[in-house]
Amino acid sequence: MQLVVDTHTHTYASGHAYSTLLENAQAATEQGLQLFCTTDHAGSMPGAPYYWFFINQRVIPRKLHGVGVLRGVEANLLNVQGDIDIPLEVDPHLDWVIASFHEPVFRPQSAKEHTEALLRVIESGRVDALGHLGNPNFDFDFAEVVSCAKAHHVAIEINNSSLKGISRVGSQSRCRAIAEEVIRQGGLLTTGTDAHFCTDIGQFAPTQTLLSELNVETQQVITHSVPQFLHFLNQRGHHACADEFAARFDL
After folding, report:
1. Residue 79: in which H helix or E strand, if any?
2. What is the CATH number of the domain that holds 211?
3. 74 belongs to an annotated ligand binding site
4. 93 has binding-site annotation
5. 8 has binding-site annotation
6. pLDDT (tens digit, 9 = 90+) per residue, 199-244?
7. Ligand-binding site membership of 16 (annotated)
8. Is 102 flagged in the annotation as binding?
9. Is 196 within any annotated ligand binding site?
């Protein structure tokens, strides 16, 4: 399946990644991407930037090296109430918000508590996607969370790094099961490399293999085409960003 958007990438600003935004953009262009989201870690993650870093992303050009850039963040789930570590005042400045569990920020608890946190963050309306849910340290009720995400137009990420076994060891079978549940319920999938170095940007081989094996319909993968992705942004209320890119792509 063709994938033209990478919705999860990091720069050295995250504190444990090793490329610049320009290097990521160049790599995205070389891989034939049309858009990518820059999603550095929010402030609760060790080494992550202060929240003003995310507000000031407005200075980033909409195109770098010929590829469109969405200004985003990978926010941390903080508690069972579904709070994330981005102040509300930052939200209007962001095009794309991922919410993820990270062990240094959210101590692994029970499946019930993880499920509650995910349901609450979805219902908050503040996040566009849930990141790397396959992590076996954060078990949850797949069916309940997928149903809630579908109802609130939140995408479930297929995380290429998890599928490669580089991060979150033991995620592969869970990633497949979560994707199967999304497909069964008619929800939406997004694709992110979770690249922490530029050479991984747009490198989706394990993700594409999984999508092929599961025979997922293209309409369920929002990163399959620019129009699909911009439609999703409009659904999520990111109208200005979607309109700007629609004009640039003459859609």
Report:
1. none
2. 3.20.20.140
3. yes
4. no
5. yes
6. 999 999 999 999 999 999 999 999 999 999 999 999 999 999 999 9
7. yes
8. yes
9. yes
